[in-house]
Amino acid sequence: MKIDLSSKWTPTQAEFDLFARISGDDNPIHVDPDFSARTAFGRTVSHGMLIYTRLWGMLTSAHPGIRQNGQTMMFPNPCYTGEPVDLLVCGDCPGTLTVRAVRSADGAELLVGETEVA
Fold first, then answer.
1. For residue 105, what are the domain limits?
2. How many CA atoms lie within 13 A of 93 on its CB side?
3. CA nearest 99: which of 44, 53, 46, 45?
4. Rounded CA separation 12/118 (Å)
5. What's 87's domain CATH number?
6. Separation between Cα atoms, residue 115 and residue 97, nearest integer Å
7. Where do the DSSP E strands lie in 1-118?
8. What is the pLDDT of residues 67-79, one digit of tens each?
9. pTM above 0.90, yes or no
10. What burial letters (b/e) apply to 47-65, b meaning 16+ CB within 10 Å?
């Protein structure tokens, strides 16, 4: 079956904080605005896997029972709170799906990857 999904998401600091608690990844770049302000990013940035979790959630909501066999991902640019993101999943199931997260304002790729699904 062909899959072609898209959605918008505007990340919040509360989501970064919750994901840190759930995942155990409490790196200050994700959860400490004062620390992050002194970095090259200038503010907190999303966990890469939080972005992927949003994409996977979108996919499983539309196609319950889908199974993942593996994935590859890169995070070329930071994802910040309050900046809308376009989430995109397309491809064939079973097979390979392309997953992307793109900053709505400037088209910067935040996550690019593939997931193998059955």
1. 2-12+46-117
2. 22
3. 53
4. 32
5. 3.10.129.10
6. 5
7. 2-9, 68-74, 85-92, 95-103, 109-117
8. 999 999 999 999 9
9. yes
10. bbebbbebbbebbeeeeee
